[in-house]
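Teaching note: in complex prediction, the entire set of molecules is handled at once rather than each chain in isolation. The prompt given to students was simply: 'Predict the structure of this complex.' The entities are:
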Amino acid sequence: MADVRTDPIHQFGIHKLVDIKIGGYDVSFTNSSLFMVLTLAVIALVLLWGSSSRAVVPGRAQTVAELSYEFVVKTLRDTTGEAGLRFLPLVFSLFMFVLVANLFGMIPYFFTVTSHIVVTAALALLVIFTVTIYGFYKNGTRFLKLFVPKGIPVLILPLVTAIEVISFLSRPLSLAVRLFANMLAGHITLKVFAGFVVTLTGLGAFGFLGALLPLIMVIGLTALEFLVAFLQAYVFTILTCIYLNDALHPGH
Amino acid sequence: MTWFISQANAQEQATVPTEGGHAPDAVATVAHEGGEHGGTFPPFDPSTFPSQLFWLAIVFIALYVLMSKKVIPQIAGILEARAARIASDLVEAEKAKAETDAAIASYEAALAAARAKANAIAHETRTRVSHEIDGRRHAAEALLNDKLADTEKHIDDVKRIALDHVAIIATETTEAVVEALMGRISRDEAVAAVTAVSSGRH
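The expected output is the structure of the full assembly:
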């Protein structure tokens, strides 16, 4: 009964391609794994192969590679200063991975890696652990100043500190859920409206006309989803930069 | 839309019980809850977590290594090489411009010098020529003056000789006239008569 054509949840299903088990854990190579590997391959293709000619006057692929590099470097430098550039490999990897994975999701029949909360949560925890570990490594206990803002009256300081701690702890959650929810909701909405088109066209001439409305919606939503795909990659990146800035310069 | 999602979920739920473990009578309520609470909603299915995390770790570590060892040095190298190239080109252009300016300046200096030299030559020539003309004119004027003076002297001589001849002619004429009228007289008498007449006339 479950119709693959109109079921909005079906696209998030994970199917085993190669069964692998290590130490009792099921680490099979799935469609999700396949698209992670494809994401890596596309990034390598564009960034490495695209710029392999090292031309002074860049071609198309090299321009894309240079633009993405300069975009991430500028975002990182503007947010964290020169000291933050040591995190460029991490931030560039995060940006490219999320961006390419999001954009992959826009291709019909392709799996959206970032529509699974375990993936976005893993990336968010990676960021937060990097920030916390580097923050303590670089600043020692001074990193805790992050939770004690300057110029706050002593009376309300405990309250503010409590809020700051909660805010810090909620960062990985918001980082993970924002990306996951955006991708999930966007793809469900797209599929629902596309499903309307399929269902209505099955109802004869009247339904055929009625299907025009959701079709126009699908076209608009597709454009919106492309924007969201880029925007969420950017938001993830810039929040990473802001959190890294806390590790580099606590007490601001 | 709500209807549609409910329908879709209901349809899905209908096939699920074997894997999801839902009792068939739970289908209606689950459908209205939107399906997220069902154990089969794929993003919340914990059975897929180890596999996703495992492959994400592999892919992301590979990506990180690729970025830090290959991509970033390569692109940074390209951008640095370009910046260096632009800087050196600018320096070269600056040098070429300075050379051009120097060439223009030396050309203009040469032009000014040539013009000054030409003016000097023209002036010198004009002065020389006018001096020469003056000299020649003076010489010609002196020559003419000399000739004038000579001629005047010559005229004076001629006049004097002519006047001398007038006395002799008068004497001879007197002699001839008197001889024809009264007979012979001496030369002295004739001279005396002429002298008397000419002095008396004066």
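Point out the following to students. Residues 101 and 151 of chain A are 43 Å apart (CA to CA). The longest strand of chain A covers residues 16-18.
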